[in-house]
Structure to design on (190 residues):
């Protein structure tokens, strides 16, 4: 293969782009975006424990035309079901209380419905609870009559990252680069 200058290559790209090159590039991008979305949903189901499935349903991949070509975007958390915790799962986070001194972490079975939803809007709404401390100093909310622990109280909770989008992007990149290189190779050969 003969060497060509950047200007010659750019000129060839311009000529080819008027034909089928952009259509083929778009087709490759759309195909990979679909696989990307599928992989991200599979990763989310494997890495995270799903209760409602809203996070998996919110994952979307799409091809966006730009001035210089095409971008493939992968998102989670938007759409009809605004899943605010999508980024927390992907990147991790430190959760701190905003309006109270402690976060309340439910540990008693009666605090959740069969589907896993909270039975009470807040720990303050649960009748018969009182503050206590364990022998090691752990703040608790316990039932006044039985002494059973209903909530652990924490000043902060560290959520570790559990990426599900990035591994899908990495996998797509490994597939996409050879496909685009092959397409560009045809352009280089003229």
């Amino acid at each position: 293969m003969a060497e060509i200058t950047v200007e010659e290559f750019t000129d060839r790209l311009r000529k080819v782009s008027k034909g089928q090159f952009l259509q083929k590039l778009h087709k490759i991008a759309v195909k990979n975006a679909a696989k990307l979305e599928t992989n991200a949903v599979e990763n989310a189901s494997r890495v995270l424990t799903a209760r409602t499935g809203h996070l998996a349903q919110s994952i979307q991949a799409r091809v966006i035309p730009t001035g210089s070509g095409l971008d493939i975007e992968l998102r989670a958390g938007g759409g009809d079901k605004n899943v605010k915790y999508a980024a927390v799962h992907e990147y991790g986070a430190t959760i701190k209380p905003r309006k109270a001194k402690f976060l309340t972490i439910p540990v008693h079975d009666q605090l959740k419905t069969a589907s896993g939803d909270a039975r009470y809007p807040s720990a303050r709404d649960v009748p018969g609870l009182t503050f206590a401390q364990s022998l090691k100093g752990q703040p608790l909310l316990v039932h006044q009559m039985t002494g059973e622990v209903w909530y652990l109280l924490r000043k902060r909770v560290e959520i570790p990252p559990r990426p599900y989008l990035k591994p899908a992007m990495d996998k797509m990149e490994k597939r996409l680069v050879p496909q685009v290189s092959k397409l560009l190779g045809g352009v280089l050969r003229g």
Residues 93-159 form one domain.
